[in-house]
Amino acid sequence: MMPSSVTARPPFDPELDAVLSAVTEQLPTLTPETIPRFREMPTPGRLTDDMLESSGLVRREVTVPGHRGARLAATVISRRDHTAPGPGIYHIHGGGMVFGHRLLGPVQMLPWIVEHDAVLVTVEYRLAPEFPDPYPVEDCYAGLVWTVEHAAELGIDPDRIVVAGASAGGGLAAGTALLARDRQGPALLGQVLICPMLDDRGQTPSTYQYADTGTWNGDSNRIGWSALLGERRGSEDVSVYAAPARARDLAGLPPAFVDCGSAELFRDEDIAYASALWAAGVPTELHVWAGGFHGFDLLAPDTALARAATEARDRWVARLLDS
């Protein structure tokens, strides 16, 4: 176990460092008591109707079944001129398992809809601690099943669905892909895991390097995982669908894109997951962006590093959808 006193760490990208200072000044400390406050805060990267309008996109609201028969809100986004079945993007939002909403994150995927005539579905899964594991991942899987079952009316080709998410959404996307494989459910074309939250154990070097800095630090990470898992956090009694880093068998999963920053807490668990995918024979592309903090591409989209990360992700999706 690495001591918590470790201080040596890769520096933040200079352009991002200035953004980080401004962002962290506005963020309250995440505690169990401040979770409601986080849920009420304006979220950078929230998708708006103006963004959709300027991109020639439309949205409609639907209700989908969740775990144990719950009814969940969902948003479907497509091109205004969409007619023939196209690729499907099943989006899962981030927020540390405890906050966030279905319109947080899809802004990064608007080019996929515009350029590939894809249809995006994003579901309002239920949050911890009110709804601990397995509710979040089971809600996400149920929404995916609904999407496939209603593919024809949604204008989606059911053989060309990609699951995608950032942070907690990336971890839930990985867990959803595992559930789909193990239950012989929807056959996914790919999975896009953006700085995914994968490991509740918190024992990697990057966990200690960024325990007290960045947009998502060690305290926040422990609170998020504890809200999801309770006293099971860090024990042997944790499902691979909740914490995909614990999975021993990754064979048969769809091709994956994994990216993160070098200056963030999730760096090492993301690298390890990509390596495990390679070891299982899963086609995987990994990017670790030097100096990137957690969520830098969403929080600072106009910086050079964010543009490079977005371009690399978009190119991978394009190759996948054109294959």
Write up this protein:
By secondary structure, this protein is of the alpha/beta class. The chain has one domain: Rossmann fold (3-Layer(aba) Sandwich). The protein has helices at residues 14-26, 35-40, 49-54, 110-116, 135-149, 151-154, 168-182, 205-209, 218-229, 267-279, 296-299, 304-322, and strands at residues 57-65, 71-79, 86-92, 119-123, 156-166, 190-194, 256-261, 284-289. An 8-stranded mixed sheet has the order 1-2-4-3-5-6-7-8, with helices on both faces. Strand 7, helix 10 and strand 8 (284-289) form a beta-alpha-beta unit. Helix 5 (135-149) crosses helix 7. It starts with 13 loop residues before the first helix and ends with a helix. The model has no long low-confidence stretch (mean pLDDT 96).
